Structure formats: C-alpha cells, structure tokens
C-alpha cells in the first residue's frame, strides 16, 4: 500500500487538474469577482472556487490531515459536489516503492498540506496567464517533501483548440516529473524576482548577485518552473512577501529535482502547522548553480533587516 504522502500527492494531481478547469471556467465567463484583500493582494472568484474544490476534495479523503489554504473562506459553506475530486493519479502511485521510509511511514499528525489555489492572481486578472499556477504542497514534520504545480494555461498561446494545462509533481527521494529539465546558459547569470512586490532591499539583493539579465515575473510557482526548465539561474526575493502556501509545493518539487530553496539567509523554511504563514526572511532558490554563492552575495544589511 502506498504511504499517506504518496496518496496525498496522487490525489493532489487529480485535484489540481479539477481546480485548473474551474479557474479557466471563471475566466471564460468573464465574471472574475475581484476583491482587494490588501495593497497588491487580490482575490478573485477563481481563487475562492478553486480553494473550495481543493480543500473539500482533500478533506474528503484525508480528514485527519491539517490543510491550510491562502483564502479565508467560510468553512461551513456548501461546496458544489461536482468539484469534489476523489481519484488518485496512477502515474504517482506507480512510484510508491521508491519512497523513503521516513516519508512512507509519515502519520496524519506529521503531515501539513499548504494550498495556494491560484498563485499569480494579479497576473491572472491582467491576462498574463502563463504566470498562473495551482500549488499544493505536502510537508512532513515541518519539511516540504511533496508538491504539485499545475499550470492551467500551459500552451494557451498555441491558439484556439489547443489542449491546455500541465501538471508538474515531485516527491523528495523519488524525483520530479511533468517537465523537461534543462541547464541555464553557462555564460550568463539570469535572475528571476518579483514583478509586483519590489522594494529597495529586493533590488539591491538582485543587483548584488551580478545578473546578466533580470526576469520579473509573477508567482512563486512560475519562478521555480523557470529554474526547472533552465531559463534562469536563481530566484532571489529579499522581502517578507511570500507565504508558506507560495513556497511549500515549489520547494518540494525543486528539491525532488536536485535543487534547493531556502530563505534569503540560507536557512530552511519550516512548514509545521503552528509556524507563522509569512516567510519573513525571503526566498532564495537555485537548481544547477551554487546556492551558497548567491546567499553570500546578499548584502549583510538586508540579512540583518530581515532577521528583525
């Protein structure tokens, strides 16, 4: 029998696909229902509906596992029964024998699931659809070990009639799947960072890493996909803007692929259910490059400020 983590990831692949369809349906109807939660922090009907789908579907199968979603919704609100997805993806399950003992033997009380139903909401409302992802991350005893990154609009520029959507998933110790891993150009140093949450510390930290080019894009999931596909060398964000649901799934997939995601200080990000949801000390991620090289170049003043 597959361990609980493998089963949750297998369920999350199916659930993320269902949530992605909901996101596309909301966009097609043109009634986004935009709410401004705070400055530069939007919520749409797609965020709300996708989270209802994901959380209800996971609770139906894993009622004792702690699940945290980005959106604050009424827990007693009735969920459309058509949104409840209970299938387990067979491509994930076939890898169950490769799972390490600590992950295979994880109990419900050891597991926390972090959900961002629509990462890149601002970009979604602006038509930058390739930035949009659905993120479902699985942590065991505070460590990100499994994740699903679903791109509902992958292939959207291929024109009408093209099949949309792509699922990337990974479990640490098993591997990462659904994409073609590539190495970034050796003679460049391309850095990705925030598109809409920049400040002086973010700019100074990126510049300190001596970029040949800076790619400002939306969504933590999208930024990590750029790393996985060899389009950038590092993801640098020296600010407390990201939350646990932004980074858990991308971190797990990146680690499963052989990469590294930490805070800007080089320390692991904890994902216990009792930790603050905000990543107060920023994000630094690499795959094919020297993680420490980038960490060492972050200005000492920035590190001290983020330490608080």
Give an account of the 3D structure:
There is one protein chain. The chain has 308 residues and is an alpha+beta fold. 33% of the residues lie in helices and 22% in strands. It contains ten helices and 13 strands. Strands 3-4-5-6-7-8 form a six-stranded mixed β-sheet, with helices on both faces. It has a five-stranded mixed β-sheet with strand order 10-9-11-13-12, sandwiched between helices. Strands 1-2 form a two-stranded antiparallel ribbon. α6 links the parallel β9 and β10 (213-217). α1 runs antiparallel to α2. It is globular. The model has no long low-confidence stretch (mean pLDDT 93).
Helix and strand arrangement:
Blueprint: H1 4-29, E1 35-38, E2 41-43, H2 45-61, E3 66-69, H3 90-93, H4 101-104, E4 111-119, H5 121-126, E5 133-140, E6 143-151, E7 166-171, E8 175-177, E9 190-194, H6 200-208, E10 213-217, H7 220-228, E11 234-237, H8 244-256, E12 260-262, E13 283-286, H9 291-297, H10 300-307
Parallel strand pairs: 3-4, 9-10, 9-11
Antiparallel strand pairs: 1-2, 4-5, 5-6, 6-7, 7-8, 11-13, 12-13
Helix pairs in contact: 1-2, 7-8
Pairing-aware structural class of the strands and helices? alpha+beta
**What are the low-pLDDT stretches, counting only 5+ consecutive residues below 50?**
none
Span between N and C termini? 46 Å
| Helical proportion, percent range | 25-40%
Q: Identify the quaternary structure here.
A: single chain
In what range is the share of β-strand residues? Answer: 15-25%
Helix segment tally: 10
Strand-and-helix sequence, N→C? HEEHEHHEHEEEEEHEHEHEEHH
Q: Main sheet: which strands, in order across?
A: 3-4-5-6-7-8
Number of strands: 13
Question: Main β-sheet, in a few words?
Answer: 6 strands, mixed
Radius of gyration: 18 Å
Q: How would you state the average pLDDT, rounded?
A: 93
Shape: globular
């Amino acid at each position: 029998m597959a361990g609980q983590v493998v089963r949750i990831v297998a369920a999350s692949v199916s659930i993320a696909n269902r949530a992605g369809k909901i996101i596309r349906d909301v966009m097609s109807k043109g009634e986004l229902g935009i709410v401004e939660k705070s400055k530069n922090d939007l919520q749409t009907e797609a965020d709300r509906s996708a989270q209802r789908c994901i959380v209800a579907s996971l609770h139906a199968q894993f009622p004792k596992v702690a699940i945290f979603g980005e959106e604050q919704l009424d827990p007693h609100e009735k969920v459309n029964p058509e949104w409840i997805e209970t299938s387990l993806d067979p491509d994930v399950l076939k890898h169950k024998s490769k799972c390490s003992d600590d992950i295979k033997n994880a109990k419900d009380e050891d597991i926390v699931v972090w959900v961002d139903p629509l990462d890149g909401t601002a970009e979604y409302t602006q038509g930058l659809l390739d930035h949009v992802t659905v993120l479902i991350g699985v942590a065991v005893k505070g460590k990100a070990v499994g994740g699903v990154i679903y791109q509902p609009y992958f292939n959207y520029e291929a024109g009408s009639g093209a099949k949309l959507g792509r699922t990337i998933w990974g479990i640490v110790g098993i591997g990462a799947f659904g994409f073609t891993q590539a190495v970034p150009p050796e003679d460049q140093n391309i850095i990705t960072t925030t598109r809409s949450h920049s400040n002086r510390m973010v700019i100074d930290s990126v510049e300190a890493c001596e970029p040949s080019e800076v790619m400002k894009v939306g969504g933590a999931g999208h930024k990590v996909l750029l790393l996985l596909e060899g389009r950038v060398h590092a993801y640098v964000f020296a600010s407390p803007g990201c939350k646990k649901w932004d980074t858990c799934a991308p971190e797990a997939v990146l680690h499963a692929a052989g990469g590294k995601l930490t805070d800007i200080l080089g320390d692991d990000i904890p994902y216990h259910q009792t930790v603050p949801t905000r990543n107060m000390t920023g994000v630094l991620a690499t795959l094919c490059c020297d993680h420490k090289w980038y960490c060492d170049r972050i200005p000492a003043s920035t590190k001290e400020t983020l330490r608080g």
